[in-house]
Amino acid sequence: MNETLRIQQSHRSIRSYKNDPVSDAMLDQIIAAAHQAPTSMNAQEISLIVVRDAERRARIAELAGGQAWIAQAPVFIAIAIDFHKTGLGVRKAGQAQIIHESMEGFGVAAVDAGIVLGTLITATESLGLGIVPIGGIRRDPQGMINLLQLPPLTFPLVGLCIGHIKDNAPLKPRMDIQTFRHDEHYDASGYTTAIDAYDVEIMDYWQKLGRSDGVTWSSNLGSFYRQVYFPQVKPVAAMQGLLNDK
Ligand SMILES: Cc1cc2nc3c(=O)[nH]c(=O)nc-3n(C[C@H](O)[C@H](O)[C@H](O)COP(=O)(O)O)c2cc1C
Known about the structure:
This protein is α+β, with helices and mostly antiparallel strands. It contains ten helices and four strands, in the order H-H-E-H-H-E-H-H-E-H-E-H-H-H. The protein starts with a helix and ends in a 7-residue tail after the last helix.
């Protein structure tokens, strides 16, 4: 197995960081890797906002619902959909941009943001640093927009904590790979059995960690997916001009 595959197959989210700063040289390399990530139509409709200031990270930790690791890790990167940038190019071409009002626009930007996130993760982990992605910035998107001074046609989609690892985390098991990889055609016939087995496995995992608050995969998803857990996304995105109605 080569080094890149080893890093990717050893991924785990880190929620305990040392105080040590992340050097400019490391951060520049990490961001340069993500800068070269592909985007649909080469639109480059993603922007990163790097937050190193401790007070601002503490505020983001609050906005994300009290996630202490955001305040602890020395670097936070917010990944924003940026149809403000593309709009300037479209206007230069004498056209009026409407893609930001469509499901296609939000979907394609979310895919491209995900590729940027994944690239940042692999680059960071390759330097021996830890990460945890933060979807919690969508809990109060208007608060993030205000803090980061994001203009209309932009939206803070996901963030990433980066820092030197204090307490490492064990590898979290995944559901059987047959529920993930489908050869030639989709096949859900093994799902129920695999979910049952995974619920048992994840409880073992919590038990080994001494986490008495750990619940099964099914219960965890049940508690989130029974509702729109970040209800501010739709109205705030609409206020930003990302209407999602076409
Ligand atoms: C898009 C995305 C958003 C996430 N948001 C959060 C978050 O807000 N807070 C957090 O502690 N973990 C967050 N996570 C981390 C997941 O909980 C974690 O990846 C998952 O439980 C699997 O664990 P592992 O990364 O250690 O393998 C997020 C992960 C992704 C991919």
